DNA sequence: TTCTAAAATTGAGTCAATTCTGTTTTTATG
DNA sequence: CATAAAAACAGAATTGACTCAATTTTAGAA
């Protein structure tokens, strides 16, 4: 019935992702040749292309796993935010940023971001856009929660604010991954400073 | 003395850029083969790589020309801004956005942005980062001007505010070039809506 | 169990960016 | 104005992502 074929398929997917993740980590994205990934996954080159449209999509699958974890971690903050607008934002964005380099190197992020703008209609491009939207939505949800708690003015345009905060953080993160010597604490400090303007504007 | 070699060099640079610009326009970035650009520029493939590190750098040179024009156009607004904070911002950002598709197609922008994050240390990557900084700086200058005119609170953190506004606009522009069907008026409206929050916060 | 159509796999072949090496042109010096 | 060193050029060779036609494997009907 459901069996063999589906199981083999899932298994090959997993093997390809694991092989790619290992080689990307060891050799970098460019350094990891498709032939090497295929060999490591004990699969032929053609098969990889049966599962993923192109090399970027393999990286994309890995990045998606990571971002989904971040989204999950963020739920806790939205449900139970610190009782201070600035801290609440800092905590949520802090989770995004601190998680970001767990599995993915800066180089992998650079490649992933590049691919998502280069091929916005490819599988990964679309997935990445959706993930960005989910993150924006989560920030918007946090703002709504803070409004419910009476910490943020009721008449604030939550949608626009969420976009503003996400877009700024995302752009800062892009600059961060572009510079290998950039460090997370400085990134967070810079974002806090930018958000201070907003926090002052929206607090009750 | 200075002569022949330098002249030939400048001439070849120009021919390569012109050939590439024409082919990128006609065939798109991917569609424009290096061999074709070389043929059109009456130069060999090897010579192109003597002038530019890779295909992306050729596009980069073209993008830089465009962004520099935009920066020039922006100077006028900073020197003489509309007497209203929201309008002043909208006018400056409007210039950036309206100019953007003059010479460059969305596809060219996508490629250029992708390359600049993929190879941040390449010639174009560095140039692009510098251009972003110049644009941020110009927004900061506008804010300073508005402060001098008494339209913006004195105690506003102009640096952070400039970054916030630029980063948000830039991210919106990235999303804009990723969707072929996206239109400029809607982009400007969305950015105005986001900036409204800031305008409310910083006006005297 | 046996057979057949559909699905999946394979790896040699294609294509285009980039590199490399030998040649030509320019410069500057005696 | 001859010439050697330096700079630039040409295009053939390399490399690696991606394609495709042939082959193998699976599902399920008889």
Automatic annotation (TrEMBL), chains A, B:
Keywords: DNA-binding. Residues 33-52 bind DNA. Signal peptide: none annotated. Residues 10-70 form the HTH tetR-type domain. PROSITE patterns: HTH_TETR_2 (PS50977). SUPFAM superfamilies: Homeodomain-like, Tetracyclin repressor-like, C-terminal domain. Gene3D superfamilies: Tetracycline Repressor, domain 2. The keyword DNA-binding applies. GO terms for molecular function: DNA-binding transcription factor activity; transcription cis-regulatory region binding. Coiled coil: none annotated. It comes from the Bacteria. This is Transcriptional regulator, TetR family.
């Amino acid at each position: 019935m459901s069996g063999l074929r589906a199981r083999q398929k899932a298994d090959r997917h997993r093997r390809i992702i694991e092989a790619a993740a290992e080689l990307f980590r060891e050799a970098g994205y460019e350094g990891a040749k498709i032939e090497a990934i295929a060999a490591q996954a004990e699969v032929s080159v053609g098969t990889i292309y049966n599962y993923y449209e192109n090399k970027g999509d393999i990286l994309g699958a890995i990045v998606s796993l990571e971002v989904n974890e971040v989204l999950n971690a963020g739920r806790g903050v939205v449900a139970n935010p610190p009782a201070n607008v600035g801290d609440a934002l800092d905590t949520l964005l802090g989770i995004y940023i601190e998680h970001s380099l767990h599995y993915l190197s800066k180089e992998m992020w650079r490649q992933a971001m590049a691919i998502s703008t280069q091929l916005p209609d490819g599988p990964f491009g679309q997935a990445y856009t959706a993930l960005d939207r989910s993150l924006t939505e989560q920030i918007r949800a946090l703002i709504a929660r803070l409004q419910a708690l009476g910490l943020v003015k009721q008449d604030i345009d939550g949608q626009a604010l969420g976009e503003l905060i996400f877009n700024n953080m995302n752009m800062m993160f892009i600059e961060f991954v572009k510079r290998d010597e950039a460090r997370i604490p400085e990134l967070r400090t810079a974002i806090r400073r930018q958000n201070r303007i907003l926090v002052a504007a929206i607090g009750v």
